[in-house]
Amino acid sequence: MARAVRVVVLGSGSWGTTIASLSARNTPTTLWARNDDIAREIDTEHRNRRYLGERPLPQGLRATSDLEEAAREADVLVVGVPSHAVRKTLEQVVDEIRAWVPVVSLVEGLEPGTRLRPTEVIAECLPGHPVGLLAGPNIAGEIADGMAEGLSVGDNTRAMVLSRGLAEMTRLGEAMGADPRTFAGLTGMGDLIATCTSPSSRNRRVDEALARGLSIDEAVEALGQVAEGVKTAPTVMELAREYGVEMPIAAEVAAVVTGKSTPRDAYRGLLQVPPGDEKDIV
Question: What is the rounded distance in angstroms from the CA atom of residue 217 to the CA atom of residue 210?
Fold first, then answer.
């Protein structure tokens, strides 16, 4: 009888733990956590209280804080660490991962500095390994925010930010060679809607805290988790300038998360954008 495929998930945040839990119901799965206490809690108590509260995890899900041990076990490697940590994490286990083991990325955002997509970073770190992407509405959105709720603005403003934010993402993606139709799917519109509307969205929770008057450092500390939009927004603006793409919503978000503007000033700026012809905007 063939040996069961062992899945190893790197990253014990909410998304990584969720994927590991789903996988553990079907095949032996190990979750790597950087934090010893989180790894022990998952392994012995079958909980990840920091990220998933009291939600029970499968009894068969194993966890470890030993990165090299986890990498050696992988028949399929799933990368779920934050975008800024992908390269550093994989560089530690290049020699531990067996040749041709497929790698699946759960990571959103862009790598600061290189501005590479996580799948591109993985391909650089692990040449020769097949690389795939699992993405979609997972309440771990990239750039769009939920600051509107904290400012108590109306549905019309939220709808404007959502629709024009998607248009900005599409313009930048197309300028970089993407098929614009893909932005209407789950990884574009679907993820954007989930990020903007769900109370569970980490980016939304950070942005609501900013709207209540907290500083970016205070908001991130209060969240206690990674919100990819905080680090990704400035990187997106670097790309927008390089490709000559106008992204006023992304620019306002980047200004807020870097402390150059307040949420209220950002919304004042967005409301001054002339309506124009929608076909020109999208």
Answer: 10
Q: In the chain, where do the E strands start and end? A: 7-10, 29-32, 62-64, 76-79, 103-105, 131-133
Q: Which residues contact 45 (CB under 8 A, 6 or more apart)?
A: none
* Nearest-angstrom CA–CA distance, 118 and 171: 20
Q: What are phi and psi of 245, to 5 degrees?
A: -105, 130
Q: Which residues contact 197 (CB under 8 A, 6 or more apart)?
A: 146, 204
Assign residue 12 the CATH number of its domain.
3.40.50.720
Give the model confidence (pLDDT) of 61-100 as tens digits.
999 999 999 999 999 999 999 999 999 999 999 999 999 8
CA dihedral (244, 245, 251, 254) positive or negative: negative
**pLDDT, tens digit, for every residue of 4-43?**
899 999 999 888 998 999 899 899 999 999 999 999 999 9
Structure tokens at 248: 């006023």
Shared-domain flag, residues 159 and 124: no
CB 128 within 8 A of CB 186: no
- Which domain range does residue 250 map to? 147-281
Answer whether residue 139 is part of any domain: no
The packing angle between helices 263-271 and 248-257, to 10°, is: 170
By residue count, the chain amounts to 282
Do 188 and 216 have their domain in common? yes
Query: What is the distance between the alpha carbons of residues 142 and 191, in angstroms, rounded to a whole number?
Result: 8
